Amino acid sequence: MEKRWGKKWALICLFLFNWARKVSSLSVTVSDMECVYEYVLYEGDTISGNFVVVDHDIFWSSDHPGIDFTVTSPGGNTVHSLKGTSGDKFEFKAPRSGMYKFCFHNPYSTPETIAFYIHVGHIPTDHDLAKDEHLNPINVKIAELREALESVTAEQKYLKARDTRHRHKVNETEIQ
Amino acid sequence: MNKGMVFGGRAACFLPIILVLCLTRNSNILPVAEAIWLTIPSSGTKCVSEEIQSNVVVLGDYYVIDENNPDHIPTISARVTSPFGNNLHHNENATHGQFAFTTSESGNYLACFWKDGSHQKDSELTLGVDWKTGIAAKDWESVAKKEKIEGVELVLRRLQGIVETICGNLIYLRDREADMREVSEATNARVAWFSIMSLGVCIAVSVLQIWYLKRYFVKKKLI
């Protein structure tokens, strides 16, 4: 009886644990350097995301050189970096747990709005399965399914941000 | 989180407390890191925005993180505005706050934070912002209680919700792309008409010039 009750708590806690997925999809205006921090709970988690520069001041500017994007691990090393892009996707495995810093650097002084999306996904491994006997392999499969759906959602957010960017260009060149 | 659980009558009474702490939004007690952290500059405001469709639930939670002096946490002010400029949430002199609203119009929703005047030190402030929209903001605990489902079934129900959101987003993207294509085609048609018209004007003006000059020279008996 107590073991069944404990199992129920285990499943509910597992559901809550699944619930504590870190997703954030926002836009921020970058004049020089803006950093966003995100906490990664487990080593080996996959950090995926994308960002798109939704042009702020496009009418008079020639091609902007792009935004530099760097990801710094809690130890201070640069885990991932992209230079001079107007938007890209990224995905990497976190080498350790802790607070990761995602920085956007704007080499020009005109402020640019960047729409970004960062997702930290965790899939229980065999080690987690061995540690907790109430975690059965179906939870691993559900976590994988959840991550696959999150990747589709991430792609949609990227497409939506790019669509916003193109829409601004099209509306600017529209002849009334 | 609470993965290592002890089963036993005595320890089981701790579980509801932990669950309640996890479910409440006051993350200062149990810092469940679900949010992104931003740095608020010592002067000026930091704003984050998102373009949201109408009829979407938005839940926000923000809290100041300051490990340097935990007994004298600096305060911030926050404001959330709708795309038409309405003030949806305003808070002054607070270390944490929450807001919830359903969007009535689609557009850019802006949440701005700035340091209060009483703490004008040169240090930067770290602010945790938890911003959830749509399916992520849905209250699954009440759904579980109402329909009496739990565990794997509840997780699968959430996945079903996510899939429905994906379908909705696809249709939304398709409609926006259709709008943009219409604008592009209208622009293309107008540019084509404009260039043909300017070419026609050039040709007409040149024909007129030739005709006038010919008439002039004939009149002056030069040809």
Automatic annotation (TrEMBL), chain A:
InterPro entries, alphabetized: Emp24-like, GOLD_dom, GOLD_dom_sf
N-terminal signal peptide: 1-25
Membrane topology: Single-pass membrane protein; Single-pass type I membrane protein
Major place of residence: membrane
GO cellular component entries: endomembrane system; membrane
Alphabetic keyword roster: Coiled coil, Membrane, Signal, Transmembrane, Transmembrane helix
Protein location: Endomembrane system; Membrane
Sequence similarity: Belongs to the EMP24/GP25L family.
Protein name in UniProt: GOLD domain-containing protein
Organism: Gossypium mustelinum (Cotton)
Automatic annotation (TrEMBL), chain B:
TM helices/strands, residue ranges: 191-213
Species this chain originates from: Gossypium mustelinum
The entry's keywords: Coiled coil, Membrane, Signal, Transmembrane, Transmembrane helix
InterPro entries: Emp24-like, GOLD_dom
Family, as annotated: Belongs to the EMP24/GP25L family.
Membrane disposition: Single-pass type I membrane protein
Record bears the keyword Membrane: yes
Residue ranges of domain GOLD in the record: 45-158
Name of this chain's protein: GOLD domain-containing protein
Location (main, coarse): membrane
Subcellular location: Membrane
